[in-house]
Design a protein that fits this description.
Helix content is about 50%, strand content about 10%. By secondary structure, it is an alpha/beta fold. The protein is elongated.
Amino acid sequence: MNPTGLPFDDIRALFKIMPVAAADCVADVRARDAQLTKPTGSLGRLEEIVEFLAAWQGKSQPTIDRPQVVVFAANHGVVAQGVSPYPQAVTRAMMENFSAGGAAINQICATHGLGLKVFDLALEIPTGDITQTAALDEKSAAATFAFGMEAIAGADYLCLGEMGIGNTTIAAAIYHALYGGRAADWVGRGTGVDDAGLARKIAAVEKAVALHRDHLGDPLEIMRRLGGREICAIAGAIMAARLERVPVMLDGYVVTAAAAILHAIDPTSLDHCMAAHASAEGAHGEVLRRLGKKPLLDLGMRLGEGSGAALATGIVKAALACHADMATFASAGVPEKDA
């Protein structure tokens, strides 16, 4: 702990020790790429992906040996405002579905050879209703952030996902607090609310941001007042990955809300992250623009669970295989272009 003993001060201190990209490893990747049996640049973003992996793993020959999808699940008091057509019991039921191998994320992980960990973040204790009070106190938010940091142990490549009835309302409130505009600019239909439900979501976001307005100049206060346990844990996981030089694939609308908290503190804090896809939920595309992230996929998905991140990892693995296993002009006896 630092001398003040404040948990949020400990989190802020982490931003001062973040490692930077390994430029020498990127140069080595480019040098090999120039020798592979293809025209320079012909694999487009696949080539950029390998450079990204090298930069953040700090390896001239990047690898993905221990890929992990980590899903954090939490419940939210704001559900009492009628923002979802589903009860909070669905969060627990989906946790059981993950464990039984019956969810979409299970199938995508099996297809692409990804490990899956799912964490129950006190589902029996929903956070405070953000229209009435803060979601969490500072101690709880910081402790959950720390839990997220520990949850990625052993991974050399990380996909982040979430599960929680009501958490698209939470994400919309975070975006509204960070970026302003109208609440309606950031609110989507989530799990499929009707027009009346959408109006309730917008009203809840408006009320929550108004209630906490005097404290929203600090992104960590936004995280604890308007967020939830999964938001805190995801933010912690992103930070731990940076400190441990683990590349991160962000999932969709809710995961990106946690990332946006870190970006608001230091825009370079997401340099080790890629955006998997443009979610069909809310204004996710606008959020990605603000974060400077170009998604790999745009398939109209809005499931959560880390499904988009896991799916995009198939592209990452293909990019790495091309770079590592393609023949060079010399080894294949293929003439290079004339000088």
